[in-house]
Write a structure and sequence with these properties.
462 residues, Growth Hormone, Chain: A, 2 domains, binds beta-D-glucopyranose
Length: 462
């Protein structure tokens, strides 16, 4: 390749990365919403003098909204396109945040959180899909992991901002301030190009070619990718019809759903939603609880870089194995310490350390890689439907984990609850071995060909 051609490729690589970063900002919204409510709860409860039941509604309505949003987004991203779906998600995000900040009664908060939920349901469906379609395959894993990095940064930012506003008890600012990043995201989304795969689905080949050229810079690569997409579009089935008619597609949908159940049953959100309470159970006072919660958020961000650095070098499976082993170990030891009783400072520190190790295990593996795999394994014609199903499952399972944790603690005790989640992680090592494909460095088109030719799921990446 001569130097002019090389410069064109370099420039377009930069464009692709910039585009991916912008789309990954949807993850920031996701994270802000997950993180923001833990710190605001007690102040809302005080101002409106409401009981735990109302608070539970305010917290969990968002996950229900997200599950709904994810379902609707499948249809929307096919009809309106990925970009317009993201715009709608951003608008709803800003509207929901403003409404929550102004809430004059608890029911307004519930409506606001429902709108926010729908917004992140749309965003959490559309952004990884868009990223998988736009990223060059050599860095696809890292680009989708970037989305997870944004989620973790959002969670951390929300933990920190909650802590800052907690001195004045101003929950309205806690909830309202996230309209600002929402508005910035909205402005950014207008600069995103349409997904070339979506353009091809709508028969807009010339535009698809233009976009791809901007992103790849190499006409040979562009032509190859266009003809690959064309080949796939010849399969005369779509979404839900395809699900009923094509057993191979049912397998990839089933795998996506299973992957998201696995991600949630690692137990990560138990820590995200109840960290202060877990630290309280270890004998820490309120101030330390907040600090440790912030440290959890920070470790979650930092360990995500491990995934970004290695996902396209070592591959998805090795990282998942390490992650599940680390998570099982972390939770197993935390459970054991709770069983034996935490008495000294040294024991407290050790237990916190093991909980942080668990966070590292999640952030370097299941956090980013499940989203990555889910957006890679679905065939083009059923991608919207397939990712819709898996994203819906993510939120539904998220809700189950969120609403069952306190009952589990009360029912079977602290130690057994952590052991239970630890045991899930052991089972997931086996699932990874049996069912998860290695998709590193394989084009989405190859993965699809392998799936449709009936290869075993764990072999569709090769
Ligand atoms: C999960 C969320 C979780 C977050 C934590 C995401 O991948 O889907 O449920 O709260 O990671 O970083």
């Amino acid at each position: 390749m001569n130097s002019v051609a090389q410069a064109a490729v370099g420039h377009s690589r930069a464009t692709a990365i910039f585009t991916c970063i912008l789309a990954a900002l949807a993850g920031l919204m996701f994270g802000l919403d997950i993180g923001v409510i833990s710190g605001a709860q007690q102040f809302i409860q005080k101002e409106f003098a409401v009981g735990d039941r109302t608070i539970e509604w305010i917290v969990s309505i968002m996950m229900a909204g997200a599950a709904l949003g994810a379902l609707g987004a499948g249809w929307m991203s096919g009809h309106l396109g990925r970009k317009r779906s993201l715009i709608l998600g951003a608008v709803l995000f800003v509207a929901g945040s403003v409404l929550c900040g102004m809430a004059w009664a608890p029911y307004v908060l519930i409506v606001g959180r429902l709108i926010l939920g729908v917004a992140i349901g749309i965003a959490s469906f559309t952004a990884p899909l868009y990223l998988a379609e736009i990223a060059p395959e050599k860095i696809r894993g890292a680009m989708i992991s970037l989305y997870q990095l944004m989620i973790t940064i959002g969670i951390l930012a929300a933990f920190l901002s909650d802590t800052a506003f907690s001195y004045t008890g101003n929950w309205r600012w806690m909830l309202g301030i996230i309209a600002i990043p929402g508005a910035l995201f909205l402005a950014g989304v207008f600069f995103l190009p349409y997904s070339p795969r979506w353009l091809m689905m709508r028969g807009r080949r010339a535009e698809a070619e233009q976009v791809l050229f901007k992103l790849r810079g190499n006409p040979v690569e562009v032509n190859q990718e266009l003809s690959d997409i064309e080949q796939q579009l010849k399969v005369p089935q779509r979404g839900v019809h395809m699900f009923f008619q094509n057993a191979n597609f049912r397998r990839s949908v089933g795998l996506g759903v299973l992957l998201q159940v696995m991600q949630q049953l690692t137990g990560m959100n138990v820590v995200m939603y109840y960290a202060p309470r877990i630290f309280q159970g270890m004998g820490y006072n309120t101030e330390s609880q907040l600090w440790f919660t912030a440290i959890v958020g920070l470790v979650n961000v930092l360990a995500t870089f491990i995934a970004i650095a290695f996902v396209d070098k070592l591959g998805r499976k090795p990282i998942l194995y390490v992650g599940f082993v680390v998570m099982a170990l972390g939770l197993g030891v935390v459970g054991t310490m709770m069983h034996l009783g935490i008495h000294s400072h040294a024991e407290q520190f050790f237990t916190v350390g093991m909980l942080l190790i668990f966070i590292v295990g999640f952030a370097m593996s299941a956090g980013p890689l499940i989203w990555t795999l889910c957006s890679e394994i679905q065939p083009l014609k059923g991608r919207d439907f397939g990712i819709g199903c898996s994203t819906f499952t993510n939120w539904a399972a998220n809700w189950v984990v969120g609403v069952s944790f306190l009952s589990l603690l009360n029912g079977i005790g602290n130690a057994a609850t952590f052991w239970l989640y630890g045991a899930f992680n052991v089972v997931f090592i086996l699932f990874t071995f049996w069912l998860v494909p290695e998709t590193k460095g394989t084009t989405l088109e190859e993965i699809e060909r392998n799936l449709m030719s009936g290869k075993r799921l764990r072999e569709i990446g090769r």
